[in-house]
Structure formats: C-alpha cells, structure tokens
Amino acid sequence: MKEPVPCLGLIVPPRAGEVPADGPALYGDRARFAALGLGLSEISTRGYEEVIDGVIEVAAELAAGGAQAISLMGTSLSFFRGARFNHELEAAMTRRVGVPCTTMSNAIVRGMRALGLRRVAVATAYIEEVNARLATYLHDSDIAATTIRGLAISGVAEVSEVSTEALVELCDEVYRAAPDADGILISCGGLQTLEAIGIVEARFGVPVVSSSPAGFWDLMRVAGLDSRSPGRGRLFGI
C-alpha cells in the first residue's frame, strides 16, 4: 500500500490562508500543505502586534487537522521582537501542539548556516523600521548584514506583485554595495522569488537564501523529510 503523503501546516500572514505557491513547486506530491491565515493588516510592527498572540492557537488548529509539523511562515512576524522571542515562540508552539514547530526566521538562519554564510547582502520588501529589526535579529544570530535595503512596502497584498525583474535589480544593488558578502538574503515571505534565485546565483556566483523557499526547506527538514529540490538553487541541493 502506498505511504500516505505527510501533511505539513503553515501559519501564513494573509487572512485568506492560501498555501504559498513555492511549496507545491518545490516538493510536488511529496508533501501536502495546509494553511491558515492570521489576518495581518500591514507589514509593520503595529501590524505584527495585532496578530502575534494568535499564532499558538492557529498552530493548534492546524495540528488538530492532522499537520505533522508546523511553521509560522512570516519572517518579520517571527523576528520583530528579536531572536530570543523567536526561539521562545517556537518552543511555546511545540509545547502547545505536540508536533515539531518552526518559524521562517529560523529557516533563513538555518539556510544561511547550512550554506556557510556569515556576511550577507540583504534585500527586503520592508520599510526601514522593519529592516532595522532584521539587522538586529541577524546580528544576534551571528550573521552580519553587510548592507540592507528594502522596497518600503507595508501592504500585505502588494508584496506578491513585485516582479522578478525588480527583485533581481534589488539584489544587484545590495550585492554591488557589499562585494565582500558571501551570499545574499531576500527577506519577506510574500515575495515570489523562486525564479530570481537562479538568476542572481548565476550572475554573482554566491548562494541566495530567500524567505518563502527557505521556509519550506526548513519545514521539510523539521518534519524529517527530504528537503532537496534539484534546480532550485544551492540551498536545495543540501
């Protein structure tokens, strides 16, 4: 009899609770993803504070629905209060629901460490306030942001409309501003980055870690599943 496909749970910022396209694109029928939304109103500290207290109960709902591992798929939602809070939130989620849990902030750090990155040029969707908090989170995770620049987007829906060309241009800008960086981080789970990753890695010859793809890579590993996905960038060869 064929083994059942594992179900992995996603806590996503938009209220609609749709599964981001990166998961099925990376892993096909190797996993089934279920998502629930938090209803984030804006990409800002004010927006995060409105929804962060609901994360654990949403995780519990996903676990009750059969999720075998769960991730909070919002980078800034998990780093905005710092590295310590991120780790405490992960631990609290795991205690409450009884299955392995993680966050997208864990994912980007684990991805960079897996690739041996310590100095990264950072491209984001964020406003300056959020960029500053990301830089602090990375510093506290022993990763230096050699430069960090964002698109100054605060609208949740607006993030998904950023083109591959705009992402590549931003990565070009941050990397040329910090040529001593050993890799590039693209931060914001709402950005559509799968195509951009390959272009940027080929152009500069350094690894790229991006929030949403890294979030799925990390969740697969937390669930004990094969995280490789050939042709999707250096991280997915590990």
Question: Can you tell me about this structure?
Answer:
This protein is α/β, with parallel strands linked by helices. The protein contains 11 helices and 8 strands. The radius of gyration is 16 Å and the shape is globular.
What would you say about this model in short?
The protein is of the alpha/beta class.
Descriptive keywords:
four-stranded parallel β-sheet; 238 residues; alpha/beta; 11 helices; Rossmann fold; 2 domains
CATH class wording of the largest domain:
Alpha Beta
Strand sequence of the main sheet, in spatial order?
2-1-3-4
How many domain regions? 2
Specify the structural class.
alpha/beta
Distance between the termini: 30 Å
Low-confidence runs (pLDDT<50, min 5 residues)?
A: none
Order of helices and strands: EHEHHEHHEHEHEHHEHEH
- Biggest sheet: strands, sense, closure? 4 strands, parallel
Number of separate strands: 8
For this structure, the CATH topology of the largest domain is Rossmann fold
Which architecture of the largest domain does the CATH hierarchy give at level 2?
3-Layer(aba) Sandwich
Broad shape? globular
Helix content: 40-55%
Strand content: 15-25%
Mean pLDDT: 97
What's the alpha carbon Rg, rounded to whole Å? 16 Å
The number of helical segments is 11
